[in-house]
Amino acid sequence: MFKILSIFLLFSPILAYDAIIFSNHISIRGISIENLLKDATADEPIVIITNQNFTLGQFSMKANAYSSEPIIDFLANSVKNSKFHESRNLVDQIEAPNSQKIDNFQPGSSILIISGESWDEMVEKFTNFEKIDNRAIMILTSSEAISTGKNRLKRSSAPLGAFPFPLIIPPYGNPKVNITRKINETCLFYLGGVTVVVENKLSNQKTLFASAMVPGANLTYSHALEDVKCEKGAFGNFIFRFRLKLAKEISGKIDNSKSSEKFVLSNGDFIDFSLKFHGDFWGYWRLIGATMHSIGVEGREGWKTLKSVDQTIGPNDTKFSKLASISGFSLTCHQSQALFFPTNDPKFRIGISLINSQIQTFTDPKIWDKMGPRFSLQTEDCTGTFSPGSLMGILTSLVMTGGVIFAFWMLQSIKTPDRFDDPKKTKQIVINEKN
After folding, report:
1. Domain boundaries, given as residue ranges, for the chain
2. What is the annotated signal peptide range for this record (predicted)?
3. Do the Cβ atoms of 191 and 356 come closer than 8 Å?
């Protein structure tokens, strides 16, 4: 038992990074750190405050979370008194390639880093830094959670082909794509089509959804070598990118009814998005993020023309997708829950739902060595054993059956009033009748 605990403690620091985001100027709820960094300006900068050993437990101690004593730490008090604040769990490092440290600060910087070897040194630098005002957004995290991007990025390869569906990536066996499997990499993704959903938030608090099913017969896909990231094992991040192109015009309607179309996807339009899965230390994997690189719809009947470009959502927006399983298993899904992305209009969102998909992050490499790339025979379904309709039917039947049994038991317990039938035990009732 102690050995298992020791192993867990050894690996736990690399599972994720703790972070606290706080601001007095803008609500940060639902906004990813990537989008915050992308929208940072010199007038509304991002200030990243770090020390080597930062954890939420360390902050709780400085904030006197376990006592009734007042908070004397300046930084902890600033977080508590901020108008907007929340804690987050970061699976990946924060990419801040254009950041400036306060030691070599230059006017006009949009991303600033305050770093200390210890908590006290970090707080001292934060207290003495005069460039921070109420328009800044603060991120408090570990030094290891920050990547300044000094390493030169690899040049991306160009997407290849316009391959027919069904989509299988990595495209093993495709003679037009020169790809070979690396040792112990066994991730695989199958996709039969997608459904595009547009969410319209009306002013009267009502929300309408229009959807367009796009089967694989109306799609082609392209593939680049860096579109799939597989880990050599069950632990880590697994990323799949889908570059889809429509081969036929598709219209979106409300509830697949005979009503007029609300939006149109034109022939030649692109649907380009990525899915990010994470496998944890215990072997479970789940969808933790998605990025919409490019999609657009043309509005009809009063619905607006929309586009969503380079929009990323995180674990809070993907936790209800039901795209999760365990290492060694593949997951099949006839129709997944839609993942919604912001658009150029805040009242509208565009969602993507997977049709006839099968996902696998890692399985036994020995099977692939003998039989080639294929999905594991151990498979589970995202729908589960019972659908919501069948569960409600079973529950209703149990309630009605219980009512019938109770009624029958009450009828069986009815007895005649026999206290007047035995003259020896009970005095008879005499009714005098007067003429």
Report:
1. 2-147, 160-381
2. 1-16
3. yes
